[in-house]
Amino acid sequence: MWWSRKRKEQQLADAREEALRWYERLGGQIMNLPAGDEAATKQALVDAGERYNAAGGQLERATTVKQYELARETALEGLAYVRAARVAMSLDPGPELPPLAGQRQAGAIREERAVEVQGREYRASPQPASGTPYYYPGGMVSGRPVPSGWYSEPWWKTALTAGAWGIGSVLVFDALFSPGFGGYGFGGGGYDQGYGSGYDQGFDAGYDQGQDQAQDQGGYDGGGDFGGYDGGGDFGGGDFGGGDFGDFGGGDF
User: Fold this and answer.
1) Alpha helices, DSSP H only, in 130-207?
2) What's phi and psi for 150, nearest 5 deg?
3) 122 backbone dihedrals φ, ψ, rounded to 5°
4) What CA–CA distance (Å, rounded) separates 54 from 116?
5) What phi, psi does 145 have (nearest 5°)?
6) Which is it for the CA torsion 61, 67, 71, 74, positive or negative?
7) What is the sign of the dihedral through the CA atoms of 197, 189, 48 and 80?
8) Helix boundaries (H) for 38-165
């Protein structure tokens, strides 16, 4: 019926406007925020710029409500990185954002954590520091819950972009978050409530989640859309500065 078609057209238009609203807000905040000198600030802005590029690409291709919702999620994730950059610069982070998909389930880092995996140290912290310059806003990454917080290396990024975990990344994940490693349990071990159930569900999901699931849960395209936001050259074109993480099963960061 014509009213059903009209309603669907309105829903599509509303979803597009909602995605555009957050996308434009992200672009404005990236352009107006100085890069700063700290590694954590620069890295958070690189990540925000990547999400801006990805959201723009999604908006150009979107033809359904679901696709516009994914673009909105990507833009919100970019704004989460902007907030993190502001925190690293000791600025007011601004108003709270709508929660990201899977963010509550993933939880958050509540205290310092350091582990050694294959002779290499990995750190996680609730606060930015020179040793933990990589922020992640929290969410499900290929079926596993990665808590929000600051990390020494973006070891989750291969799974985020490729849609599947590499062996090295899984070892780091287990060492940092599994109750079976180092006697470090979830019951008061530095994560907010709700992470334990999220971990169980993520662990059960296994290693081979497809890229479609990664897009639905992670909120942005996993491959090829991240050119690195230019923004006057301050972001370094998406260089993560961490070298080659080939042992994580996929490519350079």
Assistant:
1) 157-162, 167-177, 195-205
2) -110, 135
3) -125, 135
4) 33
5) -85, 115
6) negative
7) positive
8) 39-61, 65-88, 103-106, 157-162
Q: Provide the 10 A C-beta neighbour count for residue 186.
A: 20
pLDDT recorded at residue 237: 36
Q: Using CA of residue 6, residue 7, residue 12, residue 15, what is the dihedral sign?
A: positive
149 backbone φψ class: left, alpha, beta (φ>0; ψ -120 to 50):
left
Residue in this structure with the two tokens 């290693």, named with its chain if needed: 207
Mean pLDDT by 10 residues, the chain (253 residues): 84 97 97 86 95 97 97 97 95 92 90 92 94 95 93 92 88 82 36 41 39 41 35 36 34 30
The Cβ of residue 104 has, within 10 Å, a number of other Cβ atoms equal to 17
At 101 the pLDDT is 87
Rg (CA), the chain: 18
Span between the terminal Cα atoms of the chain, in Å: 51
Closest CA to 195 of 173, 177, 171, 207: 177
